[in-house]
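Two proteins follow. First one:
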Amino acid sequence: MQQLTMIRTILSVFLLATATLRAGAPVYVALWFDTEDYIEPAADDAALRIARDLTGLGVRATFKVVGEKARVLEQRGRWDVVRALALHDIGYHSNFHSVQPTPALYLRDLGYVEGAAEFERREGPGALDLARIFGVRPSCYGQPGNSWAPQSNAALRHMGIPVYLDEGSQVGLNDQPFWYGGLLYIYNMGRFQLRAPLDGDEPVAKSNERFERAAAELTSHGGGVISIYYHPTEFVTTEFWDAVNFAHGANPERTAWRRPRRRTEAESERCYGILHDYVAHAKGVPGVRFVTARELLQLYGSPAPAPAERARIATHMSARQTFLATEDGTLSAADMLLSLLGMQPELVDGPAMRIASSLAGASLARAAFERAKTDAVSFIRANKRLPAAIWIGAEKLSIGDFAATLAGDDEAAAEIVVRRANLEFEKYFSNEPRKAFDWPIHPEGFSAPELLELGKLQGWTLKPARLR
């Protein structure tokens, strides 16, 4: 009986300690604003008002600014807006946003490498203008509308922009941040993407309750991120500036641009009040902390792989090619492939295309496989990306089949059994090319299966992000 009592006491202490730890789990709120309307001057005042209100609340947000918006602020002499936004975090939201062609249009027919170069050619000047005008390199990027494309990852890394902050359905991982293409993605946040509606009949209390439930769920699972976003123009207009000018692929001359319909002053004040009260309430929820994109990068560290034993990696990768979560962190399929090849950890991209295996046999000779491994290492070191296929003499193995075969090799047998790929990471990508790119600014019926396919190929780099 005494022993049973002791066990119960120990169990009670353990449960209490676990509850205490969970109660202290941090909930981080990324509040961000797509600051894009360079047609309606009242949108400048909206950005100023929001920035000042948040500063007054002691909350820093991330303002993702369009390159042309920054240049227009400069031309209009709105240094008051620039200074107010600079007290927060400055992200990047493309160079011209909705002026055609938008990123998904001009990247749909390009490969990974040439697409990355084209993205930087078109979008790089805007990021440089933001750095010049605001005095800081943008912390993050997010695509205009649903005009997402995977080639932007490589370009953004080269541009020194390490975080992808936006919302979309092309790729996502358990409604929380993840590493993809070497960037920290806060994207496709599902039930943790919230906002208090500015229009409609939803009472503020209901918005607050929804936030509290999301925060409580994250706390119970060790913490995480809630994403909240708005557009400053929403507070002063009843329709979007780009929808009245660039819908369905339209591209009128600048002299023909029309301003969106305005809200009344009373309506704008009501909207500002909703945001102010929503943020104030969220800030008061125990364990909640507002963070910027720049701060999120510090909280999540780097995409460096966690240490893991080769045997564990081999067992995992021989069965399925997807990320591995360990007690010490996470590894992407690319991380594990490099480890199996005996390479040092480094950031690499996925393959630039999909090539099927032509090797028909069920096995291959040790000497031929060793040569193939050496060639794979050489390709990765030279190109900083995974090859699409590995040559076995005059035949080839797809990168997936090669990875599965490599993982299943005992490094001793004279004949290596060929294993076929199970690219499990592809399930985290959309298979709806029209729905994923549905945006009023895209041409009517626009679909981009090519970008989703290229995105899946970069799924070799996908893995959960874990709070430090």
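Second one, unrelated to the first:
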Amino acid sequence: MSRQVQQELEVDQFTKGLVGPDQEWSGTVADGGTVRTHTPPACWGPMITPEFRGGHEVTAPIYVEGARPGDALIVHIEAVDVTSVATSTGSMDENEDAFGDDPFVDHRCPECGTEWPDSVVEGTGEDAIRCAECGANASSFGFEFGYTVAFDDDHTVGLTLDNDAAEEFAQNAEEAMAIPENSRQHPILLYKPSEMPGALGHLRPFIGNIGTTPAVEFPDSHNAGDFGQFLVGADHEWGLEDQEALRARTDGHLDSNDVRPGATLICPVEIEGAGLYVGDLHANQGDGELSLHTTDVSGKTKLSVEVIKDVGLDGPILLPNESDLPDIAKPYSDEELETGRNLAAEHGVDMSEAAPLQVVGSGETINAATENAFERASNLFGITEGEVRGRCTFTGGVEIARLPGVVQLSMLTPIDLLEECGLADVVQQKYD
């Protein structure tokens, strides 16, 4: 790839479900530059398209000027704009004959046995995705419970549809979902589920899978500690020997509904150039993503990036919008600071000023993910796990991004600890 550095880079190339150091670069952006993307839906579309090796369709990796292993990449999320006018989603059912160990990864035709077969669309409904070789239903997934959602023009609300309205969108699925030109997925609107008609939902778009490239290749949907569990002991190309091998992940698959315009994500850099990738935009999602899937959409993002040298993160740090922080972890008001200083003077104590951040943790369960966040915070700040627990109890807490195991550990962090690990400037700039 040409290393022509661009101040503003537009990315229109996508992978077929993998993130790793061998993926072809999409281009190079300057340290301090801007990245623009128009990404296809993730989750359901790639899940029903048997050519994919992972459950998402994310951008080809972006080389960031000057980023080296051991650095951190700051990603300021400036805009997330939905371009789809409808989508389908719900909880999933598996076609056990259409995969080996993992329905997201090792696809095979249930009749002719072709691995990752090319596929064609015939009609609509859950049997529409057909093996190009033999004509069998080759999709690994259907809906256990599903619904189709139409959005208003301004993408402020979504309404679930009945069978007739869902069928209309299925007949025009690719256009309704605004599938980008270079995408290779089948649109999930083809499945036309309609089991929950008439429900109105608030929309608040965010990015579900955004991060830096791991040094080891992963299926993109499995670049996290919970989904990554399916790789341990798996008998396919991306199977991992043990839990220790899963530490190579960079936790790009967050599904945190706080990764939205105004938020800042700080990512570990594991390969030269960082390999930023973006995808899996969602129109909305309640905390925890309780169906394991939500409203996947095409959409445009605008991101600005900058490199911090020699930070050495174990996983992502999120600086959400102040309104998304728990009340106990929000920045102090001027009045609170004055009261605190008076109280400190009264009792002869040096009061430490602090600012909020969230350490992301992931694991097989919510408890394991929380333990992972404790470990990452302890390593980053050079304090004991007991102190992490104490500070997060007194000035923070834990929020669930996704079941079964991604969390955001909030903590009002003393400025001196932020200075020691190189994060003071970005955190203080974010929260003034």
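SUMMARY FIELD: The CA atoms of residues 89 and 146 lie 6 Å apart. The chain has a mean pLDDT of 97.
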